[in-house]
Specification:
The chain has eight helices and 17 strands. By secondary structure, the protein is of the alpha+beta class. Strand 1 and strand 2 (about 10) form a beta hairpin.
Length: about 375
């Protein structure tokens, strides 16, 4: 079975004779890479193409057979980058469903995340638009590929491998020590120069270590509450990639932070959950702050309500509480989300710009609170 490049819709294989009869159609939809996906059990290949997950072909980024794309209800913010997320597993194995944590993935799983921007003329000039999970097409004349990060589940555990795409958009090469790419972003506020930062493999661990004590490494986005939309749980099960999943109605689901039909509280909690909770939880790398920002955490001082900072300093902005109800501009949360200063901004990694729309959501959420810190 072959799958559509950027959706879960299965396609019927088209024979050579049939393709000749519909040549124009075939030209618009080039065939995916011919070779099967390659699971490499040891070593760190220098080129992304060695994995045979995807290829830049005939002006499009094409996925191989059974490399399944997925999207998130609320995506993590990364300097306005869009992301094409995929998962692949060898035949005969599947992930085990967990309601609250990342699924239990088998050895051989490869998860990829390709970061890209809509172009604005030059390949170095891109548009500042939010990642809406619209992966119906990746036309390389209209987008700039930045990097593809792989999480590979080997016998000894997960490893992270960041691959950076070249200027020609033909290949991505391994950059274990990370990379920095000068860019210019165009938005309604005008042009802004920024540096796109590719994390090194050690920085990957700072977000993906779910339990600081055990050093357990796990994926972030492939959790039921993040991907429970558009029948994705069922489609993963149908592909043989997920076992034990309930119906979508019975599985947890986070709100889409952009959905004005959802409550502000649901949208803000979903935003904090995906952007902050992988560190800010009882077991995470930021557990000493006593901030618990996962979606199910109670709305008390651990969420930041009237909570004094653990350590005073530049990161407080002179504010007394993480969340000062009804006073967003007197709250540490808003100050740190707005900041782009190293040592002050939150999250600490994954961005060099401020997410204007995300900040406004958190401001609205705090502004609607009626509690008092007196």
């Amino acid at each position: 079975m072959m799958f559509d490049v950027l959706a879960f819709r299965p396609l019927r294989a088209v024979g050579m004779a049939a393709c000749a009869l519909v040549l124009a159609s075939c030209a618009r939809s080039p065939a995916p890479p011919a070779e099967p996906v390659n699971f490499i059990a040891e070593g760190r290949p220098e080129k992304l193409s060695a994995w045979r997950l995807m290829a830049a072909s005939e002006g499009q980024l094409m996925l191989n057979k059974e490399v399944l794309p997925y999207t998130l209800n609320t995506p993590l913010f990364s300097d306005y980058a869009h992301k094409l997320r995929t998962v692949w597993m060898p035949k005969g194995v599947s992930a085990n469903y967990n309601a609250d944590t990342a699924f239990d993935f088998p050895v051989g799983t490869i998860i990829s995340k390709t970061f890209y921007y809509p172009r604005e003329g030059s390949s170095q000039v891109v548009q500042a638009t939010d990642d809406k999970g619209d992966t119906s097409q990746l036309d390389l004349s209209k987008v700039r590929l930045m990097e593809t990060r792989l999480l590979v589940r080997r016998a000894e555990g997960w490893i992270a491998l960041p691959y950076v795409w070249n200027e020609q958009q033909t290949e991505a090469e391994l950059k274990r020590t990370g990379d920095q790419i000068p860019m210019e972003m165009v938005s309604a506020q005008g042009k802004q120069r920024f540096t796109y930062v590719v994390p090194n493999v050690n920085q990957c661990a700072s977000c993906h270590v779910a339990d600081l004590k055990s050093k357990k490494f796990e994926p972030l986005g492939l959790k039921a509450r993040h991907i429970n939309l558009d029948g994705q749980l069922e489609k993963l099960a149908q592909a043989g990639y997920l076992s034990g999943a309930p119906s979508a109605a019975e599985a947890p689901r986070n709100a889409d932070w952009r959905d004005k039909g959802a409550t502000v509280d649901a949208r803000a909690r979903a935003y904090l959950d995906i952007n902050c909770a992988h560190c800010h939880n009882k077991k995470g790398t930021a557990n000493t702050t006593a901030l618990h920002l996962e979606i199910g955490a109670p709305a008390n001082q651990h969420l930041g309500l009237c909570k004094p900072p653990v350590a005073a300093g530049a990161g407080t902005g002179g504010n007394s509480f993480g969340i000062n109800p009804g006073k967003p501009d007197d709250s540490i949360f808003v100050f740190r989300l707005k900041s782009t200063e190293t040592g002050v901004m939150m999250p600490e990694l994954g961005r060099t710009t401020s997410h204007r729309e995300g900040v406004e959501l958190i401001r609205e959420w705090i502004g609607a609170m009626n509690e008092s810190c007196n």
